[in-house]
UniProtKB/TrEMBL annotation:
SUPFAM superfamilies: alpha/beta-Hydrolases (SSF53474). Keywords: Hydrolase. This is soluble epoxide hydrolase. It holds the Pfam family Abhydrolase_1. It comes from Artemisia annua. Residues 29-149 form the AB hydrolase-1 domain. Belongs to the AB hydrolase superfamily. Epoxide hydrolase family. Its EC number is 3.3.2.10. InterPro entries: AB_hydrolase_1 (IPR000073), AB_hydrolase_fold (IPR029058), Epox_hydrolase-like (IPR000639). It catalyses: an epoxide + H2O = an ethanediol; (24S)-24,25-epoxycucurbitadienol + H2O = (24R)-24,25-dihydroxycucurbitadienol. PANTHER family: EPOXIDE HYDROLASE. Pathway: Secondary metabolite biosynthesis; terpenoid biosynthesis.
Length: 320
């Protein structure tokens, strides 16, 4: 961890915190994009492993997270804002093309990045969240509500302040543990009467891959910032749908490797397995070269299986 350098840079009108391990090499650098509720820290293992193999590794706190600026309005968290932040980061570092690695919301942003700026991407390794082609007839939140009900977590995240208040009823470290240690592969539905905080006296045993120090790192940052920045990504989903109308039908045209755990709640969302395995995924991502289903692995795959994920990334990017 002592190899990781930290700095804050000005990009796209915000201050962005980046962690990186510079390496004097001709290899294409790698940028890692984290999900919710995570930080650059989720990529610590991959950064160290891949830097030892000669790759400059870069992991920002995305807009709204950690030590990066967090605009208050959800309208400032569209895919165009986040992709703009990433392009600004690459320009600041003088990087033309990069390998992109994403997970969870970071995977969503990675898909958008490849859709909007494929000229800056050499290849993509994405985890957990498949590419979702835009349906011009269906707004995302309304569609999810009809399919899975109003208690579905993405629907519950929509109203500003409500879920934040539920999180605030319990210790921030407990919220982090609830997410990172979860292994339920079914739909995440949380009725209002239960709340996302749940019982403040809950004891959640940590899996072997997650330490109290890890939890405390996340918790310290989220205790300071709150969760609104991360939740605003969900609150901008319909706006993303509106703004990307001109890209309806566009494919992802960069080389892609996709990795997901068989216990991941995203993989077990109705329709996703068929989309992946029956041709829908490869139709919309025509340069999809590999799909890896990791057995017995849940959502936070890059932390749960750090070495295996690092090796999967290297095995793919070393081809280019």
């Amino acid at each position: 961890m002592e190899k990781i350098q930290h700095s804050n840079i000005k990009v796209n009108g915000i201050s962005m915190h980046i962690a990186q391990i510079p390496v004097n090499t001709t290899n294409t650098p790698i940028i890692f994009l984290h999900g919710f509720p995570e930080l650059w820290y989720t990529w610590r293992h991959q950064m160290i492993h891949l830097s030892s193999l000669g790759y400059h590794t870069i992991a920002p706190d995305l807009r709204g997270y950690g030590d990066t600026s967090a605009p208050s309005s959800a309208t400032e968290y569209t895919a165009f804002h986040i992709v703009g932040d990433i392009v600004g980061l690459l320009d600041h570092l003088g990087l033309d093309k990069v390998f992109v690695v994403g997970h969870d919301w970071g995977a969503m942003i990675a898909w958008y990045f490849c859709l909007l700026k494929p000229d800056r991407v050499k290849a993509l390794v994405n985890m957990s969240v498949v590419f979702s082609p835009r349906n011009p007839a269906k707004k995302p939140i309304e569609t999810l509500r009809k399919m899975f009900g109003s208690d579905y977590y993405i629907c519950r995240f929509q109203e500003p302040g409500v879920v934040e208040a539920e999180f605030a009823r319990v210790d921030t470290a407990l919220v982090i543990k609830k997410f990172l240690a979860s292994r339920k592969p079914g739909l995440l539905c949380v009725p209002k009467e239960v709340g996302f905080g749940g019982n403040p006296n809950s004891k959640i045993p940590l899996p072997s891959w997650l330490s109290e120090d890890d939890v405390n790192y996340f918790a310290t940052k989220f205790k300071r910032t709150g969760f609104t920045g991360g939740l605003n990504y969900y609150r901008a989903m319909d706006l993303n749908w509106e703004l990307t109308a001109a890209w309806t039908g566009e494919q992802i045209k960069v080389p892609v490797k996709f990795i997901v755990g068989d216990l991941d709640l995203t993989y077990n969302t109705p329709g996703v397995k068929d989309f992946i395995h029956k041709g829908g995924f490869s139709k919309h991502v025509p340069f999809l070269q590999e799909v890896v289903i990791m057995e017995g692995v849940a959502h936070y795959i890059n932390q749960e299986k750090p070495r295996e994920v690092s090796e999967h990334i290297y095995d793919f990017i070393k081809k280019f």
